[in-house]
Every structure is written in structure tokens, then in C-alpha cells.
Amino acid sequence: MSAVRPASGFEPLxxxxxxxxxxxxxxxxxxxxxxxxxxxxxxxAIAGDLAVSPxxxxxxxxxxxxxxxxxxxxxxxxxxxxxxxxxxxxxxMCFVLFSLLxxxxxxxxxxxxxxxxxxxxxxxxxxxxxxxLLASYPSHMAGTALSWWAMTAMAAPVFGPLLGGWITDxxxxxxxxxINVPIGVVAGGLIWAIYRNRDPGPKRVPLDVVGLVLLVVxxxxxxxxxxxxxxxxxxESTQIVTLAVIAALGLAVFLAWELTExxxxxxxxxxxxxxxxxxxxxxxxxxxxxxxxxxxLPMWLQRSMGYTAFWAGLAMAPVGLFSVGLSPVVGRLVxxxxxxxxxxxxxxxxxxxxxMRSLFTTDATFMVIVIPxxxxxxxxxxxxxxxxxxxxxxxxxxxxxxxxxxxxxxxxTAGGFGTSISTTAWEHRAAxxxxxxxxxxxxxxxxxxxxxxxAQEQGLSEMQSLAQLEQxxxxxxxxxxxxxxxxxxxxxxxxxxxxxxxxxxxx
Length: 507
Fold this sequence. Notes:
Oligomer: single chain
CATH class of the largest domain: Mainly Alpha
Number of domains: 3
Number of strands: 0
Number of helices: 20
Strand content: under 5%
Mean pLDDT: 82
CATH topology of the largest domain: Growth Hormone, Chain: A
């Protein structure tokens, strides 16, 4: 989420105008990032209310993430075409409108459609908020400004699950979207009042329409394939095969077109930089693993552990205890030490957190579940920021905006794919464990037979005791499955530490 300070031609803001401007930009950013996590703990409630499975409910997460990613590369062109202040205000107001429509949705299809539109408008907010913030401060205060911005962005995931859980339990899930309306209106009003005369104005610039269409086609086809593969039995389905062909051909044509287009929507020539390639791979793979597990954990807590949405959110919230406080410290350290060493700490801390979670059982207490979440805050703070330094090392100033857009596009897209893959793999591994547990329930299993006998002695009928045993097996199956995925994630985080060390940091 890096931005390059523009040559805006406007003097920095001062006094109360700068404070209000910072507040307005931070509020808009907070609302955007909050919405990426607030729905995580509400998936079971939304899925139940709209009569779909929890795995289908995760489409509201992945559709937002992918559409968000697709709009990021367009930020540069849209900024020149409409002006950064007008574009930013329009994105905030569209976000508010689509949030309202999300809350009013009566089917999963309409909710996903409005989440896509919400994600498209949200993708413009992050880079533009940074650009406007940097133009509001003098050059020597740029680091301070971005530190405040980073703290706001990192605080939102803390409040997202907690607020989403409380609203879902005590009001109704549509209000996780309705809450954006007053926040967005206040932020939009302040932004227009303070920044309306600080817009360089629009320019006529060419748009790579073909590249944009191809981008939407292949990314969309791949995401739908991953989301629906399980329900359609993967490549046994004609629809899945068709989506795979569209995604593969779309990607091939997209690459060929973008490498020859004079004004590409995505500058693929950046992949000629060793640091950009390896740094983007590291941050995107790490983000995919991280984002997939933070969606998976509250689903497991509610499905297998009996947590309410609020308590699942409370278990997720402590990630911000370290991440918010450490962000300014890490910002100073990356200028003094090799950023790869700092991000290695982040990778290994993520691996430790995932390994600790792989030991979870159905008897895990709330504190046992929360401790890894607290430690994950250290991983978040020492992971993203140093890798941005690695990605941009060796690039020219003119390449920075395109690099920021492309790296963020890959990272956010990877987060959407990570969510789909993790939830699909969870269902698959649960089915495997469920089958293995079912096979163990036979007359030769003394413990199972004794349990059934005790249940019947306590007054349950044979059918009731068998039904209770089935419920226990399902709980254990999903717990074993989530433990499998956490262990795999831990191993992958360790392996990712090697990738970033293939980069070169010496000039």
C-alpha cells in the first residue's frame, strides 16, 4: 500500500485544516479496511439467512477482494482523467451507496453483485488517500503522516471482527454494511470542504480498454472456478472446464497484449526486476496464507466450538495490540537494517502462530485461542512494510506508481484466492477426516461402544445417542481439518523466508 508523492503544486495544509483533512482521509481509509474484515465473523449468519452453505457465504469476501484488486491498476488513469479529489470523493460516495445496497440485499446473488461494486470503488480509496495525505504535509513530515495512516489501516482489522460480531449478535448482519453510510457521508463532506480547491484537474489520457477487459475476464473466471469447484465436482463439471479454458486463454492473451501495448493497464515490464518479482511473490503468498486463515478461524470457532459471532470477533481482535504500536517502530528500523531480516522475523512469527493453531483441539480455551492472535500482531507489523522496501529497490521514480498498483493488484488478488482455496480445502479435509472417523465406529471400537452405552444409560434412545455421536464426529472432523491447514501454512511461511533472500539490496 505504498504511494508516491505527487507534484501537486499545492502548498501543504496547516493547523486545523490539516488535522481535519487527516481525520477525513483516515476515516475513509478506516471504513474501507474495516469492510474487508467486518464480514468475516458474520458469514455463518449471512449464509443461514440467505439459505446458502458457509462455503458459498465466503463469496462475499472473495468477490470484494478480487474486484478491489482489479480496480487498483486503474487508479493512475482515473486520477489523470477525472482529478484526484473528485475521484476520491466519488469512490467514497459510491462505496457508501453500495454498502447501503449490500445491507438491503435479499439473496446471495444480489449481495455478491453489490459487494463487487463496493470492491471496485474501494480499490481506489487506499492509494488516493495516501496521495492526498502526503500532499497535505511538508516533505519532512511525510514519514509521520504515513505512520498515522498505517496505524489507522491496521486498527481497522482489530475493530472489524469485533464490531461485526457484536452487530450480528445484537442487531442484524445488514447493519455491518449500513454502518458505513454515516461514516462515509461525514468523511465525504470533510474531504470536499477541505480539498475541493486542491485538485490539479482532469486530463485526456488513453485507456487500455482491451487490456482491462482481458484482466476482468481471466481473473473473474479463475475466481469463479475456485469458488464453485467444490460444489460442481471440479473438472468433472463442464462449467469448471470451460472456466479453466477461459482463464488460461484470457491470461495468455492478456500477457501478449500488455507486453505490446503502448499504454498498458498493467505494466508487465516491471517483472523484469528481480526484486519486484521475488518481493511481490513473497508478500502475495504470505498475504494469501494470512488472509485465508483469518477468514477460516472465525468460521471454525462458530461451527465447531459454539462461539457466537461476537466472541469469534473478540478472539480475532487482539491482532492489533502489537501491529498498531509496532508500525512506527518498524518504519524507523527498515531505514537502519536490512528489510529482509525484519521481514524474516515476520515470516517466522507467522509460522509460529500457525503451528500453535495447528495444536488446537475442541477442548481449547478462549485464552489458548487468543494467544497466537496476539503474537500475530508482531508478524503483521514486521511483514508487510519491510517487503515494500524490497519490492521498490532498484526501480526509478517514474516506475513507482505502476509498481505500487501492480504489486497491490497481485497481493489483493492472492488474498481472494487464498480465501477460496483455504475454505475449499477445509471442507475437503473435513470430509476425509469424517470418513475416517466413521470407519472407526464399529463393534471392534471398545471406546465408541462404551460411549454409546453410557449415553443410553443416561436416558437417550439408540437413535439419539447415534445422532449425538455423529455431531461429535463432525466437530472433530472440522477441527482436525483446520489443524491440517494451519500446519501446512506454517511450513509454507518457513519456506517463504528463503524466497525474499534471493533478492539484492545492495545498490
